[in-house]
Specification:
With 324 residues, this protein is mainly beta. Among the domains are: 1-119 and 190-204, Lipocalin (Beta Barrel); 129-179, EF-hand (Recoverin, domain 1). The chain contains four helices and 26 strands. The strands form seven sheets. Strands 5-6-7-8-14 form a five-stranded mixed beta sheet, with no helix packed on it. Strands 1-2-3-4 form a four-stranded antiparallel beta sheet, with no helix packed on it. Strands 9-10-13-15 form a four-stranded antiparallel beta sheet, with no helix packed on it. A hairpin with a 2-residue loop joins strand 24 (304-306) and strand 25.
Length: 324
Protein backbone atom coordinates (compact mmCIF):
# COMPACT_ATOMS: atom_id res chain seq x y z
CA UNK A 1 0.00 0.00 0.00
CA UNK A 2 1.60 3.31 -1.06
CA UNK A 3 1.92 5.88 1.73
CA UNK A 4 3.88 8.72 0.18
CA UNK A 5 5.21 10.85 -1.22
CA UNK A 6 6.56 12.29 2.01
CA UNK A 7 7.70 15.83 2.70
CA UNK A 8 10.79 15.18 4.81
CA UNK A 9 14.13 16.80 4.03
CA UNK A 10 16.18 14.24 5.96
CA UNK A 11 13.99 11.27 5.05
CA UNK A 12 11.53 9.11 6.97
CA UNK A 13 13.09 7.11 9.80
CA UNK A 14 10.46 5.76 12.21
CA UNK A 15 10.25 1.97 12.07
CA UNK A 16 6.95 0.08 11.72
CA UNK A 17 5.97 -1.93 14.80
CA UNK A 18 3.80 -5.04 15.16
CA UNK A 19 1.19 -4.70 17.91
CA UNK A 20 -1.22 -7.61 18.17
CA UNK A 21 -2.88 -7.98 14.78
CA UNK A 22 -1.82 -4.50 13.67
CA UNK A 23 1.22 -3.00 11.96
CA UNK A 24 1.63 0.62 13.06
CA UNK A 25 3.71 3.36 11.43
CA UNK A 26 4.26 6.96 12.53
CA UNK A 27 4.76 9.36 9.61
CA UNK A 28 5.64 12.79 11.01
CA UNK A 29 6.79 15.17 8.28
CA UNK A 30 6.91 18.87 7.40
CA UNK A 31 3.25 18.75 6.35
CA UNK A 32 0.61 16.01 6.39
CA UNK A 33 1.80 14.04 9.46
CA UNK A 34 -0.22 10.96 10.42
CA UNK A 35 -0.26 7.73 12.43
CA UNK A 36 -1.60 4.65 10.65
CA UNK A 37 -2.52 1.09 11.66
CA UNK A 38 -3.12 -1.70 9.13
CA UNK A 39 -4.18 -5.32 9.50
CA UNK A 40 -0.98 -7.38 9.66
CA UNK A 41 -2.51 -10.18 7.55
CA UNK A 42 -4.40 -8.30 4.85
CA UNK A 43 -2.80 -4.84 4.78
CA UNK A 44 -6.25 -3.24 5.08
CA UNK A 45 -6.24 0.13 6.86
CA UNK A 46 -7.88 -0.27 10.27
CA UNK A 47 -7.49 3.38 11.21
CA UNK A 48 -5.52 6.47 10.28
CA UNK A 49 -5.05 9.45 12.59
CA UNK A 50 -4.02 12.81 11.14
CA UNK A 51 -1.54 14.76 13.26
CA UNK A 52 -2.05 18.45 12.34
CA UNK A 53 0.66 20.67 13.71
CA UNK A 54 3.08 17.77 14.24
CA UNK A 55 6.33 18.81 12.56
CA UNK A 56 8.99 16.52 11.17
CA UNK A 57 10.24 13.91 13.66
CA UNK A 58 11.78 10.46 13.56
CA UNK A 59 10.87 8.49 16.71
CA UNK A 60 9.32 5.02 16.50
CA UNK A 61 6.08 4.66 18.53
CA UNK A 62 5.82 2.13 21.36
CA UNK A 63 3.01 0.10 22.95
CA UNK A 64 2.19 1.12 26.52
CA UNK A 65 0.05 -1.00 28.84
CA UNK A 66 0.27 0.57 32.33
CA UNK A 67 -1.46 -2.39 34.02
CA UNK A 68 -2.15 -5.95 32.92
CA UNK A 69 -5.88 -5.30 32.46
CA UNK A 70 -5.58 -1.82 30.91
CA UNK A 71 -6.24 -1.30 27.19
CA UNK A 72 -3.08 -0.89 25.15
CA UNK A 73 -1.95 2.59 24.12
CA UNK A 74 0.40 3.81 21.41
CA UNK A 75 2.92 6.40 22.60
CA UNK A 76 4.08 8.76 19.85
CA UNK A 77 7.00 10.99 20.76
CA UNK A 78 6.98 14.00 18.43
CA UNK A 79 9.05 17.14 18.13
CA UNK A 80 6.65 19.36 20.10
CA UNK A 81 4.62 16.90 22.20
CA UNK A 82 4.28 13.35 23.43
CA UNK A 83 0.86 11.85 22.75
CA UNK A 84 -1.05 8.68 23.58
CA UNK A 85 -3.52 6.95 21.24
CA UNK A 86 -5.82 3.99 21.81
CA UNK A 87 -4.21 1.06 19.98
CA UNK A 88 -7.49 -0.38 18.72
CA UNK A 89 -9.08 2.82 17.40
CA UNK A 90 -6.42 5.53 17.11
CA UNK A 91 -8.40 7.81 19.42
CA UNK A 92 -6.26 10.41 21.22
CA UNK A 93 -6.12 9.74 24.97
CA UNK A 94 -3.66 12.30 26.41
CA UNK A 95 -0.80 14.59 25.43
CA UNK A 96 1.94 16.73 26.94
CA UNK A 97 4.05 19.51 25.34
CA UNK A 98 7.79 18.89 25.15
CA UNK A 99 10.81 20.53 23.57
CA UNK A 100 12.83 18.51 21.08
CA UNK A 101 15.19 19.39 18.26
CA UNK A 102 13.59 16.67 16.14
CA UNK A 103 12.29 13.79 18.24
CA UNK A 104 14.21 10.55 17.65
CA UNK A 105 14.51 8.28 20.69
CA UNK A 106 11.53 6.00 21.45
CA UNK A 107 9.98 6.16 24.92
CA UNK A 108 10.30 3.17 27.28
CA UNK A 109 8.09 2.13 30.21
CA UNK A 110 7.94 0.41 33.57
CA UNK A 111 4.45 -0.14 34.95
CA UNK A 112 2.57 3.16 34.84
CA UNK A 113 5.73 5.22 34.30
CA UNK A 114 7.06 6.35 30.92
CA UNK A 115 10.69 7.37 30.42
CA UNK A 116 11.82 9.52 27.51
CA UNK A 117 14.74 11.70 26.55
CA UNK A 118 14.65 14.75 24.28
CA UNK A 119 17.36 17.22 23.43
CA UNK A 120 16.02 20.78 23.26
CA UNK A 121 16.45 24.09 25.02
CA UNK A 122 14.98 27.38 26.12
CA UNK A 123 16.82 29.52 23.56
CA UNK A 124 16.27 29.72 19.76
CA UNK A 125 18.65 27.57 17.72
CA UNK A 126 19.08 30.20 15.00
CA UNK A 127 19.70 33.97 15.11
CA UNK A 128 16.91 36.42 14.29
CA UNK A 129 15.96 36.50 10.60
CA UNK A 130 17.07 40.14 10.36
CA UNK A 131 20.55 39.11 11.50
CA UNK A 132 20.71 36.40 8.84
CA UNK A 133 19.57 38.87 6.17
CA UNK A 134 22.32 41.33 7.08
CA UNK A 135 24.89 38.58 6.64
CA UNK A 136 23.55 36.61 3.68
CA UNK A 137 20.93 38.61 1.71
CA UNK A 138 23.19 39.98 -1.01
CA UNK A 139 20.39 41.21 -3.30
CA UNK A 140 18.56 42.84 -0.35
CA UNK A 141 15.13 41.49 -1.26
CA UNK A 142 14.28 40.34 2.29
CA UNK A 143 14.54 36.63 1.48
CA UNK A 144 17.33 34.08 1.21
CA UNK A 145 17.90 32.16 -2.01
CA UNK A 146 19.60 28.78 -2.10
CA UNK A 147 22.78 30.34 -3.47
CA UNK A 148 22.82 33.04 -0.77
CA UNK A 149 22.22 30.53 2.01
CA UNK A 150 25.13 28.32 0.90
CA UNK A 151 27.44 31.05 2.22
CA UNK A 152 26.46 29.98 5.76
CA UNK A 153 29.18 27.39 6.42
CA UNK A 154 27.31 25.80 9.33
CA UNK A 155 23.74 25.63 7.98
CA UNK A 156 24.19 26.00 4.21
CA UNK A 157 23.62 22.34 3.37
CA UNK A 158 20.31 22.33 5.28
CA UNK A 159 18.55 24.80 2.97
CA UNK A 160 15.82 22.30 2.03
CA UNK A 161 14.92 21.82 5.69
CA UNK A 162 14.08 25.50 6.12
CA UNK A 163 12.46 25.92 2.69
CA UNK A 164 9.13 24.35 3.72
CA UNK A 165 7.14 25.19 0.58
CA UNK A 166 10.02 24.26 -1.78
CA UNK A 167 9.92 27.58 -3.67
CA UNK A 168 13.73 27.84 -3.48
CA UNK A 169 13.73 30.82 -1.08
CA UNK A 170 13.53 31.11 2.70
CA UNK A 171 11.20 33.78 4.06
CA UNK A 172 10.72 35.11 7.58
CA UNK A 173 7.90 32.70 8.46
CA UNK A 174 9.87 29.61 7.40
CA UNK A 175 12.92 30.86 9.28
CA UNK A 176 10.95 31.46 12.47
CA UNK A 177 9.43 27.95 12.36
CA UNK A 178 12.86 26.31 12.42
CA UNK A 179 14.34 28.96 14.72
CA UNK A 180 11.96 28.05 17.54
CA UNK A 181 11.95 24.30 16.91
CA UNK A 182 13.15 22.47 20.01
CA UNK A 183 12.23 25.23 22.45
CA UNK A 184 10.39 24.04 25.54
CA UNK A 185 10.80 21.65 28.45
CA UNK A 186 13.27 18.98 27.39
CA UNK A 187 15.50 16.47 29.16
CA UNK A 188 15.34 12.91 30.41
CA UNK A 189 12.00 12.69 32.19
CA UNK A 190 9.75 10.21 33.96
CA UNK A 191 5.97 10.60 33.52
CA UNK A 192 3.27 8.89 35.56
CA UNK A 193 0.80 8.23 32.76
CA UNK A 194 -1.36 5.30 33.81
CA UNK A 195 -4.66 7.18 34.24
CA UNK A 196 -4.02 10.31 32.20
CA UNK A 197 -6.52 11.93 29.84
CA UNK A 198 -6.53 15.17 27.86
CA UNK A 199 -3.64 17.56 28.41
CA UNK A 200 -1.31 16.02 30.98
CA UNK A 201 -0.99 17.79 34.33
CA UNK A 202 2.62 19.05 34.76
CA UNK A 203 2.57 17.34 38.16
CA UNK A 204 2.62 14.03 36.26
CA UNK A 205 6.33 14.61 35.60
CA UNK A 206 8.02 12.71 38.42
CA UNK A 207 11.51 14.00 37.67
CA UNK A 208 13.57 15.68 34.98
CA UNK A 209 17.33 15.57 34.30
CA UNK A 210 19.06 17.85 31.77
CA UNK A 211 22.64 16.59 31.86
CA UNK A 212 24.37 14.11 29.52
CA UNK A 213 21.37 13.86 27.20
CA UNK A 214 21.71 11.86 23.97
CA UNK A 215 20.50 13.48 20.75
CA UNK A 216 19.45 10.31 18.93
CA UNK A 217 19.66 7.15 21.14
CA UNK A 218 16.62 6.19 23.21
CA UNK A 219 16.87 5.46 26.94
CA UNK A 220 17.05 1.88 28.19
CA UNK A 221 15.17 0.54 31.22
CA UNK A 222 16.60 -2.75 32.48
CA UNK A 223 16.26 -4.42 35.88
CA UNK A 224 15.27 -1.28 37.79
CA UNK A 225 17.99 0.91 36.28
CA UNK A 226 17.60 3.54 33.54
CA UNK A 227 20.52 4.05 31.12
CA UNK A 228 21.42 6.83 28.69
CA UNK A 229 24.26 6.62 26.15
CA UNK A 230 25.46 9.59 24.13
CA UNK A 231 28.17 10.79 21.78
CA UNK A 232 31.64 10.45 23.24
CA UNK A 233 30.83 7.06 24.74
CA UNK A 234 29.32 8.73 27.82
CA UNK A 235 27.06 6.34 29.72
CA UNK A 236 24.82 7.39 32.62
CA UNK A 237 22.68 5.22 34.89
CA UNK A 238 19.75 6.62 36.91
CA UNK A 239 17.46 5.56 39.70
CA UNK A 240 14.17 5.33 37.74
CA UNK A 241 12.10 6.31 40.80
CA UNK A 242 13.92 9.51 41.78
CA UNK A 243 16.05 10.41 38.74
CA UNK A 244 19.17 10.36 40.91
CA UNK A 245 22.36 9.71 38.94
CA UNK A 246 23.83 6.39 40.02
CA UNK A 247 26.92 6.44 37.84
CA UNK A 248 28.25 8.40 34.90
CA UNK A 249 31.34 7.40 32.99
CA UNK A 250 32.75 6.65 29.59
CA UNK A 251 33.62 3.72 27.38
CA UNK A 252 37.17 4.98 26.89
CA UNK A 253 37.88 2.58 24.02
CA UNK A 254 34.79 3.61 22.07
CA UNK A 255 34.54 7.40 21.72
CA UNK A 256 32.83 9.04 18.75
CA UNK A 257 29.23 9.34 17.58
CA UNK A 258 26.34 7.23 18.86
CA UNK A 259 23.12 6.76 16.88
CA UNK A 260 22.07 3.26 18.03
CA UNK A 261 20.13 2.90 21.28
CA UNK A 262 21.47 0.70 24.10
CA UNK A 263 19.95 -2.78 24.48
CA UNK A 264 20.19 -5.36 27.30
CA UNK A 265 20.07 -9.11 27.96
CA UNK A 266 21.80 -11.70 30.13
CA UNK A 267 22.69 -9.06 32.78
CA UNK A 268 24.61 -7.11 30.15
CA UNK A 269 24.05 -3.81 28.33
CA UNK A 270 25.26 -3.42 24.75
CA UNK A 271 26.06 0.01 23.29
CA UNK A 272 27.13 0.40 19.63
CA UNK A 273 28.98 3.43 18.24
CA UNK A 274 28.82 4.77 14.68
CA UNK A 275 32.48 3.80 14.31
CA UNK A 276 31.49 0.15 14.72
CA UNK A 277 32.58 -0.50 18.29
CA UNK A 278 30.17 -2.40 20.57
CA UNK A 279 30.75 -1.83 24.28
CA UNK A 280 29.52 -4.57 26.63
CA UNK A 281 28.65 -3.48 30.18
CA UNK A 282 27.95 -5.48 33.28
CA UNK A 283 24.44 -4.23 34.01
CA UNK A 284 23.64 -2.50 37.27
CA UNK A 285 23.64 0.81 39.11
CA UNK A 286 27.46 0.68 39.24
CA UNK A 287 27.85 -0.69 35.70
CA UNK A 288 31.28 -1.79 34.52
CA UNK A 289 32.80 -2.10 31.04
CA UNK A 290 33.43 -5.78 30.34
CA UNK A 291 34.87 -5.29 26.88
CA UNK A 292 34.74 -3.45 23.56
CA UNK A 293 34.30 -5.33 20.28
CA UNK A 294 35.35 -3.66 17.04
CA UNK A 295 33.07 -4.74 14.18
CA UNK A 296 35.04 -2.65 11.73
CA UNK A 297 32.02 -1.19 9.92
CA UNK A 298 29.77 1.79 10.65
CA UNK A 299 26.74 1.06 12.85
CA UNK A 300 23.75 3.40 12.71
CA UNK A 301 20.93 0.97 13.55
CA UNK A 302 20.12 -0.35 17.03
CA UNK A 303 21.13 -4.03 17.36
CA UNK A 304 18.31 -6.55 17.83
CA UNK A 305 18.00 -9.47 20.25
CA UNK A 306 16.28 -12.83 19.79
CA UNK A 307 16.64 -16.50 20.75
CA UNK A 308 19.95 -15.94 22.50
CA UNK A 309 21.49 -14.09 19.57
CA UNK A 310 22.46 -10.50 18.79
CA UNK A 311 21.84 -9.11 15.31
CA UNK A 312 23.96 -6.15 14.25
CA UNK A 313 23.32 -4.30 10.99
CA UNK A 314 26.28 -2.29 9.75
CA UNK A 315 26.48 -0.08 6.69
CA UNK A 316 27.00 -3.08 4.40
CA UNK A 317 26.48 -6.29 6.40
CA UNK A 318 24.07 -8.06 8.75
CA UNK A 319 25.85 -9.98 11.52
CA UNK A 320 24.42 -12.58 13.88
CA UNK A 321 26.34 -13.39 17.05
CA UNK A 322 25.56 -16.23 19.45
CA UNK A 323 27.18 -18.37 22.09
CA UNK A 324 29.34 -21.24 20.88
Amino acid sequence: MPLGPFKSFYGMSASPIVAGDLVVLLCDQRAGSFLIAVDRRTGKVRWKKERPGAPESWATPMVFRPTADAPAQLIALGTTRIESYALETGESRWWMPIGSSGSMGTAVASGETLFLSTSGGTEPNLPAFETALEKLDTDKNGRLSHQEFLADKEMGEHFGWLDENSDNVIDAKEWQTIRTLGMGESGAIAIRAGKASGRMDPASVLWRVKKNLPYIPAPLYYKNVLYLAKTGGIITSFDPVTGRVLKEGRSTDAPGEYYASPIAADDKVFVASVEGKVTVLKAGAEWQVLGVNDIGEAIHATPALGAGRIYVRTRGTLYCFGAK
